[in-house]
Amino acid sequence: MFERIKVKKLNDHIYLMDDNGEATGYLVVGDKKALVIDTMNGSENVYDVVRTLTDLPLMVVNTHGHCDHIFGNVYFDEAYMNPDDSEVAKEHMAFPEFVELCKKRNLYMPPFKPLKDGDVIELGGLTLDIISLPGHTPGGICLLLKEDRILFTGDGINHGLWMQLKESKMLKELLNNLDKIMYVTKEADYILHGHAQEVDNISLITALRDGVANLIETKGEGDKDYEWFGGVDKQHPFGDGKSAICYSIDKL
Predict the structure, then answer these.
(1) pLDDT in tens, 100-129
(2) CB 197 within 8 A of CB 18
(3) Quick count: other Cβ atoms within 10 Å of Cβ 172?
(4) What pTM was computed for the model?
(5) Contact, 126 vs 26, CB < 8 A?
(6) C-alpha to C-alpha distance for 221 and 146, rounded to whole angstroms
(7) Would the CA dihedral through 179, 180, 181, 187 be positive or negative?
(8) Residues 66, 89, 149: CA angle, nearest 5 degrees
């Protein structure tokens, strides 16, 4: 039915939406309303996808302001995001290909409504706490689904953490912010991040935290180059060795 977005049901009320292997969004369905976490690339109508799954009132939350998490907002009336990522979102919304897509389809970005650390989202039988995690971007957030003990992390915690971007925080600041949220390892059992195909164990947070600490301590000695569309930076392996923190030298 849909060419790009494929849906996988994870349990009775959580759906994973994979956008052509490029980004992942989620739908969490409560008794009274449903929550869309990240809207992916915008190339396909994610609202129509969601409406095949629920007819409840919808709320949209963006974990951060990067294009592959917010561009699908054009199919909704509003979305919530930490205002600390407003400048990041503004920059991405000015990408020529996105501007052209909006003109071609007569779409526009709805306004962002503010969301902050400590806010609580009630869906009816399901509760999500907003947890701030500046690092990958200044306004990154996680959402803790208490009843299922699942932490949605966007790109802030994953197996390939990008810290080489100009908007990314210094690695020491990221370490400090990870230390602040380590309590979630006692409140959640699983992680669903912004490019996942299935759940990760909550131990990913600890592995990442320790990896960042090791990177700072070793100053990246022996780390290999990391090539991406923005140039060449460095990558520091952590955890199982298949995971890596991508960083630029000026973030150390």
Answers:
(1) 999 999 999 999 999 999 999 999 999 999
(2) yes
(3) 13
(4) 0.97
(5) no
(6) 40
(7) positive
(8) 50
